[in-house]
């Protein structure tokens, strides 16, 4: 009987011997050691997308985010700035806020009632000596940046220094969509039964997009294809794309909207890709006929036919900005084989559900697509967990998967070399 068991190999050796152009070896996706390393080397050292500003509309509003052993409080302070703090009381370390979201006047630890302002300062602690210096015991801050209505944090003492440059390059693309004036239409959390890297890899290619019939009503199924690689079955769609792209560029230029692709996925610490391009059908939104899902546009656009502005950010997020709404996706590792995918739909703050938009119509395409992707990721996890699994080659259309994996392995190598 043939067996497939391989000799045990250390984590550092597996990282060092990663073969470009091939999927990762099984322990990267299945082992607790790699999961812990991913939190330490990637999620605790990179800039992470964690929320839209619209999730914190008023002073005192907060959201908590859990990343491995870390819990972080995001909240809007009295000056309406977004801040982030470790969710750890400075007295004896108790978890302060348990709920995923809410609103506070002050932040009060439920254990001994130490009380903090929304700026993190310790305001009150009972029965302490007169010479106790409260200024030394504020909540520990987490690096926070907002970019055109998106909130990013970094847990590292010294975050990657390239974020300012990345923010300056992507903000002109995103800002016209007015996310700071948006509100949350809905947010859906989905737990996928697979490793977080499988979730990200699945997002970085459209080789599998034939499994997304709802999405293919509006998304051209040729994403990632070079012209010479387009198969005959996709040639009609590719020709439609070329025509729509030419028409869209004229529109983008007339409105002063940047659209050219910038792709630096694995050449910097804060890897990203951004591009504005057309949608199929009516070309307005992610719906079953491509028409706008919300009658009130996100901004003062003169036409809803703006296609999609798509942004990919390493290691945990992707976004679609449309004329009528925006969708954010964040990925949070839960376990070696479990991953949270949080999807948030944003509409204009004055848009009224049932009048300007139907929530089911707004969310139908991506709810179905997320559910389909969850099944695909689970199947991938099951297969990789088999002793018969061996790394396989990436298709040319999966070049962004290779870029993601190369970025990831580069982060691990840098961390292990410390």
Keyword list:
iron, 8 helices, globular, single chain, four-stranded antiparallel β-sheet, iron-sulfur, oxidoreductase, 418 residues, 2 domains, disordered N terminus, Naphthalene 1,2-dioxygenase Alpha Subunit, Chain A, domain 1, alpha+beta, 17 strands, Rng_hydr_dOase-A, Rieske Iron-sulfur Protein
Helix and strand arrangement:
Layout: H1 11-16, H2 27-30, H3 32-43, E1 48-52, E2 61-67, E3 70-76, E4 82-86, E5 101-103, E6 107-108, E7 115-116, E8 122-124, E9 143-147, E10 150-154, H4 163-174, E11 182-192, H5 196-203, H6 235-255, E12 262-264, E13 272-277, E14 308-313, E15 317-321, E16 326-335, E17 338-348, H7 359-384, H8 399-416
Antiparallel strand pairs: 1-10, 2-3, 2-5, 3-4, 6-7, 7-8, 9-10, 11-17, 12-13, 13-14, 14-15, 15-16, 16-17
Helix pairs in contact: 3-8, 5-7, 5-8
Keywords: 2Fe-2S, Dioxygenase, Iron, Iron-sulfur, Metal-binding, Oxidoreductase
Domain Rieske: 48-153
InterPro entries: Rieske_2Fe-2S, Rieske_2Fe-2S_sf, Ring_hydroxy_dOase_asu_C_dom, Rng_hydr_dOase-A
Determine the N-to-C terminus distance: 44 Å
**Major sheet details:** 7 strands, antiparallel
Give the C-level CATH assignment of the largest domain: Alpha Beta
Q: What proportion strand?
A: 15-25%
Protein name: Aromatic ring-hydroxylating dioxygenase subunit alpha
Cofactor: Fe cation
GO molecular function, one term: dioxygenase activity
Keywords: 2Fe-2S, Dioxygenase, Iron, Iron-sulfur, Metal-binding, Oxidoreductase
């Amino acid at each position: 009987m043939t067996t497939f068991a391989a000799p045990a190999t250390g984590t550092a050796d597996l990282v060092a011997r990663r073969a470009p152009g091939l999927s990762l070896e099984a322990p990267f996706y299945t082992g607790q050691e790699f999961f812990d390393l991913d939190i330490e080397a990637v999620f605790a050292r990179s800039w992470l997308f964690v929320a839209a500003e619209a999730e914190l509309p008023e002073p005192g509003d907060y959201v908590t985010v859990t990343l491995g052993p870390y819990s972080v409080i995001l909240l809007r302070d009295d000056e309406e700035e977004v801040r982030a703090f470790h969710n750890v009381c400075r007295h004896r370390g108790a978890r302060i806020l348990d709920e995923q979201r809410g609103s506070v006047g002050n932040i009060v630890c439920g254990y001994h009632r130490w009380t903090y302002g929304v700026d993190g300062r310790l305001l009150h602690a009972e029965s302490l000596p007169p010479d106790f210096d409260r200024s030394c015991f504020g909540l520990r801050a987490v690096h926070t940046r907002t970019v055109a209505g998106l909130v990013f944090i970094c847990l590292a003492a010294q975050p990657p220094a390239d974020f300012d440059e990345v923010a300056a390059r992507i903000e002109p693309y995103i800002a016209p969509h007015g996310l700071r004036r948006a509100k949350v239409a809905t947010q859906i959390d989905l737990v996928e039964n697979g490793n977080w890297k499988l979730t990200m890899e699945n997002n970085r290619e459209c080789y599998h997009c034939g499994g997304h019939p709802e999405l293919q009503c509006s998304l051209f199924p040729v994403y990632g294809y070079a012209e010479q690689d387009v198969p005959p079955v996709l040639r009609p769609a590719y020709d439609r794309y070329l025509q729509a792209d030419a028409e869209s560029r004229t529109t983008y230029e007339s409105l002063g909207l940047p659209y050219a692709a910038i792709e630096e996925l694995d050449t910097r610490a804060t890897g990203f890709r951004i591009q504005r391009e057309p949608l199929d059908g009516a070309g307005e939104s992610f719906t079953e006929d491509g028409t706008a899902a919300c009658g009130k546009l996100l901004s003062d656009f003169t036409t809803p036919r703006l296609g999609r502005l798509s942004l990919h950010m390493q290691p945990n997020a992707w976004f679609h900005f449309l004329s009528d709404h925006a969708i954010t996706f964040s990925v949070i590792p839960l376990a070696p084989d479990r991953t949270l995918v949080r999807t948030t739909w944003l509409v204009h703050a004055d848009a009224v559900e049932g009048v300007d938009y139907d929530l089911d119509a707004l969310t139908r395409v991506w709810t179905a697509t997320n559910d389909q992707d969850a099944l695909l990721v689970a199947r991938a996890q099951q297969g990789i967990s088999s002793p018969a699994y061996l790394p396989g080659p990436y298709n040319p259309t999966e070049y962004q998967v290779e870029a993601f994996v190369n970025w990831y392995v580069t982060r691990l190598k840098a961390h292990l070399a410390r």
